[in-house]
Write a structure and sequence with these properties.
Elements (H helix, E strand, L loop, with lengths): L2 E3 L11 H23 L2 H11 L1 H6 L4 H27 L1 E3 L5 H14 L5 H18 L8 H12 L7 H17 L6 H19 L1
Antiparallel strand pairs: 1-2
């Protein structure tokens, strides 16, 4: 079996499990904040504009190619950092940990939750961890609960291509805006009463 064994745990090997989870949660929160800041920064705005028309972005003097190279380099560094954290927790990395089909399955789960938001990675990881635990308490025909849920989620992408989290976020934002919007006055009733007043006055004068 080829791979790397005995990877140093970066000082985390003696800590308790919940401290390790806390450390990973803090790292995830910090990296998510950095990603959101990049998306809302100049580079993110250039890429959003390039989705509509790269030629239009180039005409105003912005370099789409340079921005893409910089962001792809940053994403590669982020993936390497994630791999280092993964290796430090398992202390053993082999080719079996990165099978092609399993990697596609994980990418599909992230797309189902919404690849445009960092929360999709957290939701996908939780679903991969919790679904097998639920399947243990179900009948044997539901042993592949993870794959079943992923299949229905992939079908849901046909209706909501943005994923679960962006769709739910848009829904709650619309509902919140509707609740905060001031209720319009009953214009129709007031107009009807005012419209009857001249007719009533004419009848009395006649």
């Amino acid at each position: 079996m080829s791979g790397m064994m005995g990877i140093i745990a970066y000082g985390l090997g003696t800590l308790l499990a919940f401290l390790l989870i806390l450390f990973l949660a803090v790292v995830f929160a910090l990296l998510s904040s950095v990603i959101l800041a990049i998306r809302r920064g100049p580079g993110g705005r250039v890429l959003n504009a390039a989705k509509d028309s790269e030629a239009a972005v180039a005409t105003i003097g912005l370099s789409v190619r340079t921005t893409k190279i910089a962001l792809f380099s940053g994403s590669t560094a982020l993936a390497c950092f994630g791999g280092a954290l993964y290796g430090s927790t398992t202390q053993a990395v082999t080719s079996d940990n990165f099978q092609y089909v399993q990697s596609l399955f994980i990418v599909l789960i992230v797309y189902i939750w919404g690849v445009s938001t960092p929360g999709a990675a957290l939701a996908g990881a939780l679903s991969l961890a919790i679904a097998p635990l639920i399947a243990v308490h179900l009948p044997s025909r539901f042993s592949a609960l993870t794959y079943l849920m992923t299949g229905f989620g992939a079908l849901g992408l046909l209706l909501r291509p943005n994923g679960v989290i962006p769709t739910a976020s848009d829904f709650f934002h619309r509902q919140w805006a509707r609740l905060r919007a001031p209720s319009p006055p009953n214009v129709g009733t007031a107009t009807g009463v005012q419209a009857l007043e001249p007719a009533y006055a004419t009848t009395r004068s006649g």
